[in-house]
C-alpha cells in the first residue's frame, strides 16, 4: 500500500530477459543502470539507501542549472566574508579620510599657531614702538576709525587707541559752539588728526592719545605774556572758565584758564553769573607755564582797573563830574572803614614806612569787595609818598604812605600786614 518498495521498483525495471524466467538473483546493480548522481557533484558515489531516496523524493526538485544552484558552503562562507571585507575596506577608507582630516586640522592648527605667534610678535613690537613715541614726545598723524560718546578711536599700526573728548583740539568744537561734541566727532571719522601718546600701558591694554598735547607742542611757543586773543568760552567751573584762543589762522588751537579772580573787577561769587559756554570774550595772557602746559588768562585786566586808579577819577575834585561817586567828604569828616585804623598802625611797624595819612572818601555805585582790601595806586610816588585805596563794599578811602620803599617794596609790606591782621 502506498509507495512501492525498492524491490518492486527494481522488478518492474528489469529487462525482458527476466520475464523469460531468468532469475533476478545475482544480477549486479549495474544491470539497472548507473545510480543517480548529484547535480552539483563531480564525483561518483554509491547508490543511496532507500530511506535517503525516500527523503529525496519528498524534497523539491533540484535546480536545473548549477548557475542557479545554491552556493556551496565555501561559497556561502565567502559571501559572508565579502561584506566584511567591504566593510573593512570602507573602514580603511574612512580611517584614511579621518587621518587626512586630522592632518588637515593639524596643519590648520599649525598655521593658526604660526599666525598667532606672528601677531603677538607684531603686537609686542607695536607696544615697544608706541612707548618709544611717548618717550620722545613724537607727534603722530593717525586715522580716525570711529567715534563714540566719549571720544574717537584711532588706528596705530595693528592696534587701536582712544582720544577722550577733553583731549581733542578745541578747533573742532569752536567751528560751531552750539553743536554737541558727540556730533562734531562723527565728522572726524575717516580723517586723520595729529596726536601725541599720553598713556601706553601694555599690561592693561590701554593706549590713550591727546590732540591737545600735539597742538601745545606746535603752537605754545607763539603765546607770550601780554598777548591778547579773541576767545570762546568753553567749560565753566566754580574756580574759573576755560577759554579757547583764536590764532591768526582762524583756528582755536589752545585753551587757557580765566581764574575767578580774573573774571571781573566786581565781586564774583559765581563765575556763571558772568560767563557762559559759547560766549565770545577778549582775554590777555598773564601767565604761560611751559612745563605744565598751562596758560593763565585775564578778562578784567583788559578793562580799566579801578584798583590801580587814582581817586582823581573815582572821586574827582569836582564831585559833580564823578560818574561813579555819590558823595565826597573832607579828611576832617572821614569815618574810617572798620579795621582800617588797625591796618594803618601795623603799616607803621614795617621798615621803611614812616607815616600814614588818610585822604578823601566816597561811595561807589558797584561793590568791589565785601571785605576790606587795600590797593596800590599806579601813580608814581611823589616825595616818597604812595597812595593806597582802601575799599569795602561801596566805600572807597584814600590812604597816603610816606616811605623809602619802592613800589614793589610797598606791595610786599601791605601783603605782610594783611597776613597778620585778622
Record the SSE blueprint.
Layout lengths: L5 H7 L3 H4 L30 H9 L14 H64 L3 E9 L2 E6 L2 E6 L5 H5 L6 H6 L5 E10 L4 E5 H9 L8 E10 L2 E7 L5 E8 L20 E10 L4 E5 L12 H4 L10 E5 L10 H8 L5 E12 L4 E8 L8 E9 L1 E9 L3 H14 L2
Parallel strand pairs: 8-10
Antiparallel strand pairs: 1-2, 1-4, 2-3, 4-5, 6-7, 6-9, 7-8, 9-10, 11-12, 12-15, 13-14, 14-15
Organism: Lolium multiflorum
GO molecular function, one term: nucleic acid binding
Protein name: S1 motif domain-containing protein
The domain count comes to: 3
Helical coverage, percent range: 25-40%
Radius of gyration: 59 Å
In sequence order, what are the helices and strands, one letter per element? HHHHEEEHHEEHEEEEEHEHEEEEH
What distance separates the N and C termini? 158 Å
As residue ranges, the low-confidence spans are: 1-45, 50-61, 63-82, 85-90, 317-332
Shape: elongated
Overall average pLDDT: 75
Please work out how many helical segments DSSP would assign: 10
DSSP strand tally = 15
Main sheet overview? 5 strands, antiparallel
Q: How much of the residues is beta strand, in percent?
A: 25-35%
Structural class determined from secondary elements = alpha+beta
Spatial order of strands in the largest sheet: 3-2-1-4-5
Amino acid at each position: 500500500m502506498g509507495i512501492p518498495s525498492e524491490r518492486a521498483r527494481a522488478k518492474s525495471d528489469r529487462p525482458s530477459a527476466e520475464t523469460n524466467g531468468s532469475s533476478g538473483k545475482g544480477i549486479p546493480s549495474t544491470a539497472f543502470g548507473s545510480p543517480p548522481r548529484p547535480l552539483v557533484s563531480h564525483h561518483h558515489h554509491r547508490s543511496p539507501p532507500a530511506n535517503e531516496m525516500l527523503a529525496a523524493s519528498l524534497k523539491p526538485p533540484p535546480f536545473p542549472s548549477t548557475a542557479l544552484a545554491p552556493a556551496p558552503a565555501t561559497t556561502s562562507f565567502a559571501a559572508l566574508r565579502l561584506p566584511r571585507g567591504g566593510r573593512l575596506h570602507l573602514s580603511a577608507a574612512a580611517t584614511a579620510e579621518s587621518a587626512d582630516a586630522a592632518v588637515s586640522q593639524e596643519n590648520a592648527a599649525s598655521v593658526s599657531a604660526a599666525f598667532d605667534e606672528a601677531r603677538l610678535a607684531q603686537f609686542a613690537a607695536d607696544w615697544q614702538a608706541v612707548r618709544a613715541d611717548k618717550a620722545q614726545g613724537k607727534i603722530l598723524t593717525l586715522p580716525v576709525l570711529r567715534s563714540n560718546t566719549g571720544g574717537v578711536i584711532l588706528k596705530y599700526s595693528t592696534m587701536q587707541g582712544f582720544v577722550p573728548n577733553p583731549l581733542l583740539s578745541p578747533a573742532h568744537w569752536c567751528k560751531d559752539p552750539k553743536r554737541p561734541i558727540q556730533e562734531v566727532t562723527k565728522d572726524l571719522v575717516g580723517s586723520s588728526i595729529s596726536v601725541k601718546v599720553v598713556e601706553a600701558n601694555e599690561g592693561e591694554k590701554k593706549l590713550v592719545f591727546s590732540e591737545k598735547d600735539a597742538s601745545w607742542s606746535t603752537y605754545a611757543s607763539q603765546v607770550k605774556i601780554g598777548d591778547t586773543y579773541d576767545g570762546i568760552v568753553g567749560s565753566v567751573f566754580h574756580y574759573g572758565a576755560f577759554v579757547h584762543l583764536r590764532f591768526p589762522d582762524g583756528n582755536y588751537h589752545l585753551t587757557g584758564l580765566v581764574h575767578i579772580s580774573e573774571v571781573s573787577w566786581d565781586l564774583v561769587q559765581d563765575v556763571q553769573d558772568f560767563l557762559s559756554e559759547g560766549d565770545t570774550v577778549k582775554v590777555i595772557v598773564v601767565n604761560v607755564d611751559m612745563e605744565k602746559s598751562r596758560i593763565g588768562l585775564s578778562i578784567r585786566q583788559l578793562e580799566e582797573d579801578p584798583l590801580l586808579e587814582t581817586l582823581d577819577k573815582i572821586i574827582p575834585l569836582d564831585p559833580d563830574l564823578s560818574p561813579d561817586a555819590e558823595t565826597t567828604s573832607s579828611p576832617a569828616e572821614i569815618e574810617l572803614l572798620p579795621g582800617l585804623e588797625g591796618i594803618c598802625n601795623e603799616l607803621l611797624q614795617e621798615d621803611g614806612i614812616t607815616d600814614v595819612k588818610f585822604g578823601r572818601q566816597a561811595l561807589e555805585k558797584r561793590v568791589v569787595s565785601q571785605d576790606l582790601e587795600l590797593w596800590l595806586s599806579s601813580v608814581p610816588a611823589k616825595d616818597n609818598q604812595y597812595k593806597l585805596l582802601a575799599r569795602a563794599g561801596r566805600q572807597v578811602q584814600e590812604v597816603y604812605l610816606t616811605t623809602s620803599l619802592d613800589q614793589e617794596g610797598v606791595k610786599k609790606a601791605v601783603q605782610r600786614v594783611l597776613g597778620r591782621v585778622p
